[in-house]
Amino acid sequence: MELESQKVTVQKSQQELYNFLTDVENYEQIMPESKEKFEVKSKDTFAFALKGMPEIQLQIQDTREPDLIVLGSTSDKFNFSLDVVIGDAGENQSEAQLFFHGKFNAMMSMMVKGPLKKFIGNLAENTAKL
User: I need a surface site. Which of 65, 75, 76, 101 has the fewest CB within 10 A?
Assistant: First the structure.
């Protein structure tokens, strides 16, 4: 399953946004309002839970400074990655877009597509407010 957020403009330079999003503690600031739990597990891993959803643990799996951060699920049951692509948009501005890549069976895809689309949309919107 492939999903993508809208591209948003952020009032931070490309490098500032990259630095912000490579610190896992900062993800709490962009989580949706439906967040019920957020916990930093290590310097590159955090766990969160949204209302009505199981806990998910994400780890920074790859980076390409200053334009790409790849977060991946640490669970075999919920195998996906979330790519954050950061583009330069001028002085003290950048553009960010999220791309979700999941490997689910057809039934699971139908169940999670709506909530996941909303989730990555919320992350993008909240990133734009930084």
Answer: 76
Asked if 58 and 73 count as a contact pair (C-beta separation under 8 A), the reply is yes
The whole domain housing 21 covers: 2-128
- The CATH number covering residue 84 comes to 3.30.530.20
Query: Closest Cα to residue 16, out of 67, 58, 61?
Result: 67
Q: Residue 1 carries which DSSP code?
A: -
d(CA 59, CA 15): 20
Smallest Cα–Cα separation from 85: which of 100, 69, 65, 73? 69
Domain count, the chain: 1
Q: Does residue 96 sit in helix, strand or coil?
A: strand
- Residues 18-41 have pLDDT tens digits of 999 999 999 999 999 999 999 999
Residue 127 pLDDT: 97
Closest CA to 118 of 45, 33, 38: 33
Average the pLDDT over 77-84 and give the result. 92
